[in-house]
Amino acid sequence: MSILKTANLKKHYFTGTTVKAVDGVDFSVASGEFVSIVGSSGSGKSTLLHMLGGLDRPTEGTVEINGKNIFAMKDDELTIFRRRSIGFVFQNYNLVPVLNVEENILLPIHLDGNKPDMAFVERVIETLGLSEKRKSMPSQLSGGQQQRAAIARAVASKPAIVLADEPTGNLDSKSGMDVMGLLKVSGEKFAQTIVLITHNPEIAQMANRTVRIEDGRIVR
Amino acid sequence: MIFENKKLLRRLNEMIDAAIAGTFSAETYDESLISKIESKMMRFLEISRLKQDQTENERSRVRSLIGDISHQTKTPLSNVTLYAGLLSEQDLTDTQAKLARQISVSAEALSFLIQSLVKASRLESGAIKIEPKPGDVYALVETAAGLCAANAAAKNISVEYEQNTAHITALFDSRWCAEALFNIIENAVKYTPERGKVSVAVTEYEMFARVDICDTGRGIREQDLPKVFERFWRAESSGDSPGAGIGLYLAREIITSCGGYIKVSSKEGKGSVFSVFLSKV
User: Fold this and answer.
1) Which chain B residue is nearest to residue A186, measuring alpha carbons?
2) Which of B205, B210, B261 is closest, CB to CB, to A184?
3) What distance in Å separates residue A56's CA from the closest CA in chain B?
4) What are phi and psi of A6, to 5 degrees?
5) Which of A48, A107, A111, B133 is deepest in the core (most CB within 10 A)?
6) Rounded to an integer, what distance in angstroms lies between the CA atom of residue A78 and that of residue A52?
7) Is the pLDDT of residue B242 over 70?
8) How many CB atoms are located within 10 Å of the residue B180 CB?
C-alpha cells in the first residue's frame, strides 16, 4: 500500500528566468519502505523533501500522504496534519536546548495534547541507545547522540512517515554510520516508513530502494 | 446536545485507547448510540483477531510445506548423487565421464539450493528463532574465517584477520551470524582471483561493532550495488562461478534479525568491502 505519492510535482522559481528546482516528479513510497533520494548539490532533492513534508508549496502537482492531498488543506490544517503524520530529522538536529532528551522526544506528542504510549517510547529510547542519556540536556551530548535523540523524537509519535534530510551531514564518519544504522534498524523494528535525502551514494544504498534525482527530475 | 456529543467523543477516545492496549470490552447494552458503537467495536476487534489467527495458520501450513519439500527431496537427490558417482566409476569414454561429472555437480548444486531456500523461508516465516546474545566479535570472525579456510587454500588465497586479546562485545546469534559472515567471506574468496587476498577487520563504534570483509576481486558495478543482497541476484560477470545468488541474501536476513545491518562499497576491478554492523545495545 502506498503511503506517499507525488504526481507531476513541480517547483519553479521566477527570477527573470525560470529556475526549475523540481520539474515533474512522480514517485510513491509503500508503507514500511525505507527509500533514499540521492542527488548532488543543487539537484532539487531538498526542495523535493520540503514539499513532501508540506514545508513548501509546489508550483504544480500533488503530494498525497495516507491518501490525503496535503496541499488541498488550509495552512492551519496542514500544520496539524504535519505534526501528527510526519516526523522530521534535520542535519542540524533541531532539539529544543532547554528540554532534556526525554522531554524533547515527548514534545510532539504533548504538543498534540496526547498521552504518550510510554511502553513504545521506552522501546524507542532503548533502541537508540539513549537510556542513560534521557535526563541529559542537548548541550551535554555529542553530535551523534543529538541526532539519535532527533530520530527518537521523529519515531516516538508513530508518524505515517519520517523524512530525514542529510541526517549525517554534520557528523564524522563513525558517528554517521552509527546514526544511519540506527535509522535503518528503527525503521525495520517499528515498521516505520522512511524517506532519506542524501548526496552520499554510500549512505543512500543502505535504504531498501534508491531514487536518483538530477536537475529536478527523477532518473531511473 | 453539545454535552451529549462531548460525552460520546470522550467514550470513543477511551474505547480506542483500550483497543490499542488490548483491554477493550463493551460496557453498556442499551439502545443508545454509544452502546451500538461499543458492540460494533467488539465485532471489529473480533474480526481482526480472527484474521490474525488465519494468518498464523497460513504460516504454519507454509512451514509444514517447507519441511515436506526439504524431507521428501533428500532421498531422490542422494540417489542421483550416488548413482552418478557409481556411473563415473565405470569404464567410460571421456565424453561419458564428463556427462556423469556434470550430473554430480548439478545434483550438488540443487541440494545446496534447496537447503538455502529452506533456510531462507524458515528465517522469513520465523520458524528459525534468531536469538542475539552478547558475544565476542573477534571470536565470531575467527569461527567464520576458519570455515572458509579450505576453499581459500585451494585457490592460494590468504584470509587474514586480526587476532586480538581484547574483546569487542556485540549482540548476535553465534551460530547464525557465523553462517552469515561465512557466506560473505566465502563470496569474497569465490570472486577473488588465485593468490589474491581477503582481509577481515573489526572496528568498535559507540552503537555498533563493524566487521569489514575486504577482497581484491573483480568488484561490483555502481548500478549493481543496491541489488547485491536481493534473492537470486548474480552479477552478469559471474559467468560459470558456482553459486545460486542466495548467500548474501541469507546473510542480510540473519544480520537484520539480530538488529544489525550490512552495506557494501566497491569499485569495479578494484575489489569490494562488505561491512557488517552488529548492534551493541
Assistant:
1) B259
2) B261
3) 31
4) -115, 150
5) A48
6) 12
7) no
8) 29
Domain ranges within chain A, ordered by starting residue? 2-212
Encode pLDDT of B42-52 as tens digits: 889 889 889 98
- Residue B119's region, left for phi above 0, alpha for psi from -120 to 50, else beta, is alpha
By three-state DSSP, how is residue B64 classified? helix
Edge-to-edge strands, sheet with A161-165: A86-89, A161-165, A194-198, A34-38, A209-214, A217-219
Block residue for cell numbers 571470536: B139
Cβ–Cβ under 8 Å, residues B153 and B192: no
Closest CA in chain B for residue A148: B207
Q: What pLDDT, in 10s, does the model give residues B109-156?
A: 888 888 888 888 877 777 788 899 999 999 999 999 998 888 899 889
Residues 6+ away with beta carbon under 8 Å from A178: A144, A148, B205, B206, B207, B208
Cell of A136: 541529559
| pLDDT surpassing 90 at residue B270 | no
Size of interface A-B (CB pairs under 8 A): 47
Q: Domains of chain B (ranges plus CATH)?
A: 1-128 (1.10.287), 133-279 (3.30.565.10)
Q: Can you read off the three cell numbers belonging to residue B214?
A: 575486504
Write the pLDDT tens digit of every residue in B166-175.
Answer: 889 999 999 9
Superfamily of domain A2-212 in CATH is P-loop containing nucleotide triphosphate hydrolases (3.40.50.300)
B residues 208-227 closer than 8 Å to A (CB): 208, 210, 222, 225-226
User: How far is the C-alpha of A80 from the C-alpha of A76, rounded, in Å?
Assistant: 6
DSSP state of A205: T
